């Protein structure tokens, strides 16, 4: 996996300096602009195009908080393809209640109950977002052992958030069917 932080000469951080990311992107965009290599060999042009593509991808990931979070978890070996992550039982029970309420709403639409469910899910999402923010903000100041522990917690919150995205989609469908 390519280290975008290394490519930009920046330390791995959940909250990198946005101006530094943008500055590196623009500097490398100029350096690897394909138009400047039009008279070079095909091999050199292909190399420059590859670097330009890498620069664009690095910028997309490092400038988007969600993509950056996922990327850092991958970079640090916390996410593996096809991983079957098991969410905590308490969270799953809470989500089972939410899913049951959603199923009830499919058979018995009720705008008031749907609004209450939306609020409940929004509160859970906010709690997760706040906890992620707390962990990612303190990450840069931690030693290696503390960072390792934080990464495990961030990974758990990441998967909870992914689960909630599916719940949010179901809520949006239920909302659309009420209209």
Automatic annotation (TrEMBL):
Pfam families found in the cross-reference section: DnaJ, HSCB_C
PANTHER family: IRON-SULFUR CLUSTER CO-CHAPERONE PROTEIN HSCB
Taxonomic placement: Bacteria, Pseudomonadati, Bacteroidota, Sphingobacteriia, Sphingobacteriales
GO MF, one annotated term: protein-folding chaperone binding
Family statement: Belongs to the HscB family.
Protein name in the entry: Fe-S protein assembly co-chaperone HscB
Role summary: Co-chaperone involved in the maturation of iron-sulfur cluster-containing proteins. Seems to help targeting proteins to be folded toward HscA.
Keyword Translocase on entry: no
Domain J: 3-75
Gene Ontology BP, a term: [2Fe-2S] cluster assembly
Signal peptide coordinates: none
Organism: Pedobacter hiemivivus
Superkingdom per UniProt: Bacteria
Record gene name: hscB
Keyword terms: Chaperone
Keyword match Hydrolase: no
